[in-house]
């Protein structure tokens, strides 16, 4: 972290990784309290049901995903967003090629 408190900015974001088939991830910016991550998904990608202690905001930039949590399901399209509290089990699947911005608080050490 430099004197301004900036850890990463869009001009020096981390490289793109492929943590699982059908998904690309890029950490765009973070500090110890907050993290912005871009995910892109191929049609048919389905993430495993999971939970984490971080609160998460999900914003769909393009495409369509199905998000499931607490026995409910939402089909989200470009411009849609939702918030998931930390500790809530959830999963997502891409119904078409999609780009999603995820914001986590605090930042995810496993992504940094």
TrEMBL record:
A Pfam family the protein falls into: Cupin_2
Domain of life assignment: Bacteria
Domain Cupin type-2 per the UniProt entry, residue ranges: 39-104
PANTHER family reported for this sequence: H2HPP ISOMERASE
Name of protein: Cupin type-2 domain-containing protein
């Amino acid at each position: 972290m430099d004197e301004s408190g900036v850890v990463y900015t869009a001009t020096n974001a981390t490289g793109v990784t492929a943590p699982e088939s059908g998904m690309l991830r890029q950490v765009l910016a973070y500090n110890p309290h907050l993290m912005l991550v871009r995910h892109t998904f191929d049609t048919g990608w389905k993430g495993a049901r999971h939970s984490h202690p971080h609160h998460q905001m999900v914003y769909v930039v393009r495409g369509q995903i199905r998000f499931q949590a607490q026995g409910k399901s939402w089909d989200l399209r470009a411009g849609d967003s939702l918030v998931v509290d930390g500790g809530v089990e959830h999963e997502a699947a891409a119904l078409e090629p999609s780009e999603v911005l995820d914001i986590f608080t605090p930042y995810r050490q496993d992504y940094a």
